[in-house]
Amino acid sequence: FHAQCSQRLQSPRMDLCHVPAAREKGWYLALMAPNVKGPNYAWLDPSRLYCHPQGLQDCVADLLQPFQGDAIDMVAGIDAMGFILGAAAAATLRKGFLAIRKAGHLCVQTVAQPYTDYSGREKVMEVRTDAISPGLRILLVDQWVETGGTMRAAIELVERLGGPCCVPAGVAAICMEDSEGGRWIQERYKCSHCVPPRLQPRFNHHQ
User: Fold this and answer.
1) Bridge-partner residues for 125, per DSSP?
2) What is the SS3 assignment for 94?
3) Does domain 44-205 have CATH number 3.40.50.2020?
4) How far apart are the C-alpha atoms of 121 and 112, rounded to whole Å?
5) Nearest to 132 by CA among 115, 154, 114, 103
6) Strand extents, DSSP E, 10-121
C-alpha cells in the first residue's frame, strides 16, 4: 500500500493516499481543482475532494460538527452536487435523505419554486409533496452558497411544505460566500461551512 502511494505521489493523476499529519479544518480544500475552461464554469471543482476517502470523511465531519446534539430528522440535498454531500451527511447521521430536484425530473406530485442561480440564470426547483410533514427538522446541504439564490429557494420549499412549524435545522455547504444572499441566510439560520476565516476573503474573491 505504501509503495502504491509513493508511485501515485510521482504520478500526474490524483493522489488519493496522501493525508497530512496535521488535519486542520479545511485541509481538504487544497484538493479542489481550479477552473481551466473559462467563465461559463464554476471557479473551483470539488470532485477530487470527493474522490479522496479521508478528505470526504473530514469534510462531512466538519460540516456536521456545529449540529452535534441538534434535532435533525432528515437531510435534504440540492440538485446536483448537493446530493453527494447531503447523502454522505444523511448516512453519517443515520437519517433519511430528500433530493431537491431541478424541475422536470420527478414523476410524482411536486411543489415548485423559481429562483435565480449564481450565474444569473432563471431556473425552477421541485420537491415531492409527500416527503415533508409539519414539524420536521431538515438540514439543507449544497456544495456551495455563492449568491444564495439556490439555497434560499430550497429553504422556501421546505418551509412551504412543512408549514409554520417546519424550521430548517440548518444550512451546510463547503463554502458560504460573503454575498448579500449568503449573509441573508447566515443571519436567519444556523449555518456550517468548511472555509477557515483566514481563507474566507480569498474564496469571496474567487482566488
Assistant:
1) 102, 113
2) coil
3) yes
4) 16
5) 154
6) 33-34, 44-45, 74-78, 96-102, 110-116
Q: Which amino acid is at 68?
A: Q
Amino acid identity at 190: K
Kindly report the backbone phi and psi dihedral angles of residue 101, in degrees, each rounded to the nearest multiple of 5, phi listed first.
-100, 155
Extract the C-alpha cell encoding 205. Answer: 474573491
User: Bridge-partner residues for 140, per DSSP?
Assistant: 76, 171
Residue located via cell numbers 426547483: 125
Question: Looking up cell 464554469, which residue turns up?
Answer: 41
Q: What is the 3-state secondary structure (H, E, C) of 130-184?
A: CCCCCCCCEEEEEEEECCCHHHHHHHHHHHHHHCCCCCCCEEEEEEECCCHHHHH
The C-alpha cell at 5 is 502511494
The pLDDT profile of the chain, 207 residues, written as one tens digit per residue, is 445 444 444 445 777 889 999 999 999 999 999 999 998 889 999 999 999 999 999 999 999 999 999 999 999 999 999 999 999 999 999 999 999 999 999 999 999 999 999 888 999 999 999 999 888 999 999 999 999 999 999 999 999 998 776 779 999 999 999 999 999 999 999 999 999 999 999 999 999
Record the pTM: 0.91
